[in-house]
Amino acid sequence: MSIDRFISDAFSQWLQATFDSQRVRSIEQAGADPGAWQEVTDSGFADLLLAEQHGGAGANLETLGEVLQICGACALPLAVATTMWVYAALAAEGHDRPRGAIALARGQRVGERVECRNVAFAATVEHVLVLLDDGAWLLPVADAEPVAASGVAGLSADLQWTTLPASAWKLNQCHDWEAIGAAIFAALIAGAAGRVLQLSLSYAAERHQFGKPIARFQAVQQQLSVLAEEVYAVRMAAQLALRGSGLAVDPRLAALAKARASQAVSSIGAIGHMVHGAIGITEEYDLQLYTRRLHEWRLQFGSERYWQQRLGHALLDSQLPVLDFMRGLTGSG
């Protein structure tokens, strides 16, 4: 077994044992849970992307992509994915990492005020790396004024700071954090989508109607086939975006991954709930954990429309035929 496979398998086993669906629900309802994040810290998995000289595992992006999909498949309500990246960026600049989890969000200045809309995992983090016109700033959530909850799971919120706190850090190195955010949430969507497929296949095999499993009805089979196609297309797009080593991702592949992942969310959620019928929306059944995450993550760092427009502009600027552009984009040319 390769070291990368060993890491992803170990993480999957630990995550399933530590954050089952009941605990996920508990964190959703209670919000911040310092004990939960301490367990993540103690496990060492938050340091996967850190270079070995900084005490981490020095994992490559392919391994990280697998780990992020596992987070999505668990509907994990903690910002493990974004924290991994920010920890590595801070360590590369010689900063000590702050205490607690870190979210990643776009922001804007309105006078002295800093505003962030729809910050993923805002309810369970202690810092936010805010992307402003003059760079990326690490801001403490304790100094923010919650404006309103957003999203469908209660974990996201709009945040604002009346001014930059004295404890704010500005990262010196320039990273394409927007592309990183797109790749992160594409991988999380891929993981949650895979879980929707798994639940739908299991339920269709178990649920009987007219004396036989509903999986044997042609109409259901057709919908499950479409669902599988969407899930694996998202998974492949996310894998393309997370290749190589270091912190940088190809912004064009990140755009492709997020566009494809966000586009698939509506059909994946609809088919999953169609197969399950009314039971899928009940609080007691796990399906709604994943479909809520899908719709929330679809909007993070741009929906499909935003990234499709970015790709369209890149195609026009390249002046290449569409097929040549796509071959160059995926490295198949």
Report on the architecture of this protein.
- Helices cover 53% and strands 14% of the residues.
- The strands form three sheets. Strands 1-4-5-8 form a four-stranded mixed β-sheet. It has a four-stranded antiparallel β-sheet with strand order 2-3-7-6, with no helix packed on it.
- Strand 2 and strand 3 form a beta hairpin.
- Helix 4 crosses helix 6.
- The chain is globular.
- The model has no long low-confidence stretch (mean pLDDT 91).
Features:
single chain; 333 residues; four-stranded antiparallel β-sheet; 10 strands; 53% helix; globular
* Terminal-residue CA separation: 31 Å
Average pLDDT metric: 91
Overall form? globular
Uncertain segments of ≥5 residues (pLDDT<50)? Answer: none
Order of helices and strands: HHHHHEEEEEEEEHEEHHHHH
Strand order across the largest sheet = 1-4-5-8
With helices defined by DSSP (H or I, 4 residues minimum), what is the helix count? Answer: 11
Radius of gyration: 20 Å
Which range does the strand content fall in? 5-15%
Major β-sheet profile? 4 strands, mixed
> How many individual β-strands?
10
**Proportion of residues in helical segments:** 40-55%
**Which class best fits the helix and strand makeup?**
alpha+beta
